[in-house]
Amino acid sequence: MKFVILDLLKDKPAHGYEVTQSLEERFHGLYSPSTGSVYPVLQLLEDMEYVTSSEVEGKKIYTITDGGKKFLHEQEETTNKIKERLWGWGNAKNQEYLQNIRTTMNYLDEIRELMGHIAVHNDPAKIIRVNNILDKTREEMEIVYREK
């Protein structure tokens, strides 16, 4: 995450919420980082002296330092590999694939919500049924994963 955030900040200074929004855009909506995951990385980068922060209109604005730029340059191969994997999803030829992944992520969100509704009813028989369904699903997904 530090590589991705530093790469964002090399383009322009930003506050934490802007970093979060930019990450969501670059992940094409497939990952929405929480402020609870972004701010500790920003603090780590500040502790490492790769970024500095200043208060502007009540917001902490983060700016990459020369040390941060040097680190990014030294880690250019790693950073490029990460960017290639993540940013490459937005190519026009991948739009259908990207939409299918979003659909899958929506299904997982709906399953998580349904699980919460089922769990509050304190019905052990329903939980056993759900576990059986999920176990079969997991087994089938492992088969798909292992296919060549």
SSE topology:
Layout: H1 2-11, E1 14-15, H2 16-26, H3 35-47, E2 51-56, E3 59-64, H4 66-74, H5 76-87, H6 95-119, H7 124-146
Antiparallel strand pairs: 1-3, 2-3
Helix pairs in contact: 2-3
Task: List its traits.
three-stranded antiparallel sheet; 7 helices; mainly alpha
Please count the beta strands (DSSP E, at least 2 residues each). 3
| Order of SSEs | HEHHEEHHHH
Query: Can you list the strand order of the major beta sheet?
Result: 1-3-2
Query: Strand share of the residues?
Result: 5-15%
Dominant shape: elongated
| Largest sheet: number of strands, sense, barrel closure | 3 strands, antiparallel
Annotation field: number of helices? 7
State mean pLDDT (0 to 100 scale).
88
Structural class: mainly alpha
How much helicity do the residues have? 55-70%
For the terminal residues, how far apart are their CA atoms?
Answer: 30 Å
Structure described in brief:
This protein has seven helices and three strands, in the order αβααββαααα.
Please describe what this structure looks like:
This protein has 148 residues and is mainly alpha-helical. Helix content is 70%, strand content 9%. It has seven helices and three strands. A three-stranded antiparallel sheet has the order 1-3-2. The longest helix is centred in the C-terminal third of the chain and has 25 residues, at 95-119.
